[in-house]
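Hallway conversation turned thread

IA: we were arguing at lunch whether anyone had actually written out F-box domain-containing protein end to end. Turns out nobody had. So, for the record, here is the sequence (520 residues) and right after it the structure tokens. Reply here if something looks off.
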Amino acid sequence: MPDTSRIALPAPLQNDGDNTQSSPIERLSDDLLIAIVMQRVRSRKQASQFGELPVSRSHPLITASHVSRRWRQLVLASPSLWCDIAISTPILPPSLEGETEAVARRLIQWMQNLPEVVRTWIDRSQNCPLSISMHMSEIAHFSDPKVGKEVRDTAWICCLTLIDLLCDVAGRWRVLELDISLEDQKLDQSAALKRFHNLRAQDVPLLEELDAGLHIDHHLSCPPPVKGGIQMGRSLRSLKIPLTRGGWQDYGANWSGLTELHVDGFLFRQGDKSAEEFGAREALALLKACPNLVTCTLALLSQSAFAEREVDLGSSSTPVTMGSLEALDIRGACPRSSMAKALVLPSLRELVLLSNDNDSQTLKCWLGRFGRGLRALQLELPLNVSPDDMDHILDHVPNVTSLGISVVGSDDIRGDRAPRLDAGSLLLQSLTMKSCVGGGLKEGCFCPKLKELFLSQEQKISDATILDFVQSRRSSELVKRRIQIIKEVTVFSDGDVGSDLKGELLRRGVDTDGLYLETL
């Protein structure tokens, strides 16, 4: 198929007479015309801020349907074009926030028209499965309280109308992503929200992906869904759970059917106080209930009042075996060594451990168990990691092709101990191929398959350290030794970083073709 990425939609014609047939674009086949429209939609999505193209009267599909009679017939006769319904509140430029009533009137009119625009998409998609994303939150602050209240009231009337519309076609949902923040607790009792909360698993037979976050009256956490709700859908394979009040057992999802899971945590109640209790023990129990996961993201919460429950998990628990899990992402509280020891993950290829209280011993345990099978790794390292610990960590990940390191901590955490090289500089020096006295490179290196490196820390990393690393990992000698040449390096650090590092590499005689190098 020809490249249609550079073909722009023509301006709407003034008539639909025979002259339109003489236009070269009108002589294209129906399939190619539809491909042009689809490419236009894709390019607009890619250029948008969040990778979505909200429905509107200026959407490319609406524009295409007004080009000519033929275009309109084609677009309206292609229901699959209308199956992606993205809804979001507009983001005002800072220059307009707090502005005049005229801006508010435009917003109000836009929100009053939005339900009808969404109905157009629903009708034109006919009976096709729908992918829906709806992001609604406070639009803007206005200096006039009355104007601000009118905008907010209109926004939530619009929001509830849209929820009602979407519930009408729940049987066609394939993907549902909701992120709604309601400011008035009374709205939690609205008929539209009650209708949504009361949907049952049998109401969504096609639902494969679910991400539903409803935040009421500024609560950071969401209420749990009803038992037997849409989270139990028979086709559900991907589930994202926002921070939720209650335990994971009370959530009642179709755990065994999931292949993708994202959990932002659960808040348990202990007496009269809320205790953040979703830690390693709860996470292991949840993983055990999800034996078919391929990707998983977990946010572990602080264990301050329940730390004693996290001791010796591996020794007292049956190992949790997950034969299909390929990607595991753990954030928040540090996942202690006991959690690693309780997991059996033979297919794990991607690991993310992002916690600002990661310690070297914990990381060494995790990588000792799973490091050799990894192809991609992201870690948060303490600033004062020792050279021995750094070597130990890198030695256990010989097959990684993508490595992301964020260094956390400040200089004052080192106390009165002798100063050490910061972790970022130490990492680059450890990955730098060492030179022989007589020229050439010494045998052996850490991470011989490394293609991509991302490094971030607050402390400055010198240009020389970056250049030495890249030069050694771009040497022509590496090909003979079957060591991967580095292709992408991104370094984010404080201070003034040289802006012409590629120029300096060229002066050193380094081949920079195909190299992406960015310092921020």
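OS: looked through it. The first strand starts at residue 84 and ends at 88.
IA: good, adding that to the notes. The chain has 16 helices and 19 strands.
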